[in-house]
Design a protein that fits this description.
There is one protein chain. By secondary structure, the protein is of the alpha/beta class. It folds into 2 domains: about 5-65, Orthogonal Bundle (Helicase, Ruva Protein, domain 3); about 90-280, 3-Layer(aba) Sandwich (Rossmann fold). Helices cover about 40% and strands about 20% of the residues. It is built from 12 helices and 9 strands. The protein has a 7-stranded mixed β-sheet with strand order 5-4-3-6-7-9-8, with helices on both faces. It has a two-stranded antiparallel ribbon with strand order 1-2. Helix 1 crosses helix 2 (about 25-35). The longest helix is centred in the middle third of the chain and has 15 residues, at about 150-165.
């Protein structure tokens, strides 16, 4: 790495150390651009140029990435729904696929608001970084949005994101699922831990730094879902919606759980790759 001289050669050399990444060259570009205080576009325009001595922080970032740490954690930020969120090892890194949970909430909320004009209340459980809750609040400033998480450390990150992106705090509560949440809501969203325990173990062995608490959903990944659905049913207003993200292979079982709990008009939303991702249902009006 020390013998190369152009930006392109540096990036190519660094990319070779990211064997576990699906996008090694992009990863290298993001780390180098961040270290130099450049945009990725500006860096790409300089690829043929001779590079100056690089800051030590760049090689430290390369080491962290080669050991499996995510780009988002290294940079301390992640774009989600068109906004830049603060992220670190206290929270799960927001995924693009989770944006469909926000889309579904906005669609269902617009429908529910016809029944409750001007006073729609939305709650996001297992909020982590607050990406879903903050995105909904930013897109629909007239709605009352709150959020909860079992981790106080995660809520610290959510609080920082709300202040940064909304310019005001969200009502945040420490809660195991919805157990400590009070009030009634027109919409409840949740991206709960749904990775099976054995898969969580494998990911952590590969170097993932994300908290087990945000990943591990028990033996089959569905251990928390029945209680979440039951709690949500009690907190929803008549005609309110519950929206839950899971893995696509879990969706049929989750749909059955929704039906057993009493939800009607059950539906499924697909993610950017066309996979079933969000299960939704409505509490009967009567």
């Amino acid at each position: 790495m020390n013998t190369v001289s152009t930006y392109r050669e540096i990036l190519n050399a660094v990319s070779e150390s990211f064997s576990g990444s699906e996008t090694p060259f992009l990863d290298a570009c993001l780390l180098l651009a961040h270290s130099l205080g450049l945009s990725r576009e500006s860096l790409l325009a300089r690829l043929p140029e001779q590079a100056p001595p690089l800051p030590a922080g760049f090689y430290e970032a390369v080491r962290r990435r080669s050991e499996g740490e995510s780009i988002a954690y290294i940079l301390g930020k992640k774009e989600f729904f068109g906004r830049e969120f603060i992220v670190d090892s206290r929270v799960l890194v927001p995924r693009p696929d989770t944006e469909i949970l926000v889309v579904a909430a906005l669609e269902c909320g617009d429908l529910a608001e016809r029944d409750h004009p001007g006073r729609l209340a939305v709650h996001d459980a297992c909020t982590g970084s607050g990406a879903v809750a903050v995105s909904i609040a930013a897109e629909r400033p007239g709605w009352t949005v709150s959020a909860s998480d079992i981790s106080e450390a995660a809520l610290e990150v959510a609080r920082a994101n709300a202040t940064k992106l909304l310019g005001k705090p969200l009502l945040l509560r420490v809660s195991n699922l919805l157990g400590a949440v009070q009030g009634t809501f027109g919409i409840i969203t949740a991206n709960p831990p749904y990775v099976p325990s054995h898969e969580t173990d494998a990911l952590l062995r590969q170097g993932w730094k994300e908290p087990r608490l945000a990943l591990d959903g028990g033996i089959d990944g569905l251990s928390l879902i029945p209680e979440l659905i039951s709690q949500a049913y009690r907190l929803l207003e008549p005609g309110g919606f519950l929206l839950v993200e899971t893995d696509s292979l879990q969706v049929p079982a989750v749909c059955a759980m929704f039906e057993k709990a009493g939800f009607v008009a059950i539906f499924v939303k697909r993610d950017l790759a066309g996979r079933d991702r969000v299960t939704g249902g409505r509490k009967p009006r009567a």
